Amino acid sequence: MDHAIRTLPPLDVLVLGAGLAGLRAAWGAAEARPGARVAIAMPLAGPSGSSFANPHDRLGLHIPADDAAREAFCAEAAALAPPGLILPELVRVLAQEAQARGRELETLGVDFLRTETGAPRLYPSCFSPASRRAVVFRNLGAVFTAMRGKATGQGVRLLPGLTAVAVVQEWENGPVIGALLEDAAGRWIAQPARSVIAAMGGPASLFLHHQAGRGATGCGHGILGAAGAAMANTGYLQWMWAGTDSKRFWPVWSLLDGATLPLDALGRPVPLPEAVRARAAGRPDHCPLGHGLADAALDHFLLELADRDGVATVVASDPSRPEAPHTVALMAHASNGGAVIDPDGRTSIPGLYAAGECATGMHGANRIGGAMVAACLVFGARAGRAAVLATRERPTTGREFDRALAACASRFGRDPKERGTAQAALARALQRHGLPRQTPDTAALVRLLASCRQTVVDAVAAAQIDSALLFARETARHPRKA
Question: In what residue span(s) does the FAD-dependent oxidoreductase 2 FAD-binding domain sit (predicted)?
């Protein structure tokens, strides 16, 4: 296998990914140290990943505005976390700084929904229906353009068409000194850097049915885990019901009042059991499935009627509104897991930082609506600043870097055919064994993925399987309660 690799000039900070977290990290680094060499490796020239992929073209941002609101947010986040890991210090930082990050977006001209007086309109949040602490902004393509412009205006370089394959380390599980990237033609490129910030998103795109955006590879968790970073909450994805054709959100709680009926395999309507109805009374309070919550009984009920890939057929029950049956699926959405970070985005590996779906600790198994957008902005900014101010002299050029790069590249190969085959098999396996059913067969999924990982050579396929294994093993460790 030809491993000819072109090495780019060294950087102070390399950001992997150009979603909300990655853009804010690059902006934060360049702002903290003007003149620093900061660049973003991004899969596309335009918007990519989950940050800008919402089919409704809008996002919620949770911004507790005073001490009482911040205390309430922290208490709610802690209550929603089990059985996932949550670090109170990170939750407090998130609550304290979300409002300031929201105001920065306002100064960029981001289009917030507003009241008649011109103030941002306040909304309740998923898992926090009584609060009014969230704002909503729209026109996500324009948000990307504004944040990209803010970063490049401070000297950040863009490296479009490059996706991460691995991080380069001085030794196994040692300090990070750069990254191995792949361009659109499949060529490998080395980017030395004193610090690397992982903002590559989560594993949702690995599933057959998902709501991740264009350019999402699903490699982020696998790359972090392979580097030796301490990981947590990797089994806790958000799951949203959506139409299989439109991918637009579908309210599963329409089953509660009988407005919609599920159909069985023979096309017959199935009434909702009263026991499920009673347990699911709180389901309208949140769009995602609630891990460990009683109202997940409604999601489990519909999944039991779905096919092997989690696709269910439903129909309106009102005879005055005749419509054809349509299909919905529980789609993989944003992850609550990633590398465990400190308040400045540091992982357990020197020189490696994380933000967005690559980081965790600020929420556990479930998270309050709008908290992921807040976390991307808050910890993206903190990671960027910490990474560029770190006083690290690392071998980002010369023989030592070349030796580390050779060791990194020797673990992988490039095989486009194998990659395509592995990705298709992985999507099917995750869809059939990885959905949050009442009794998922995660042990079988772990065995299947581990067996595939032993034979896969292609670097991207290997990282994707590693991501899937982190998801499956965490899920197997925390079986779902009845």
Answer: 12-240, 326-371
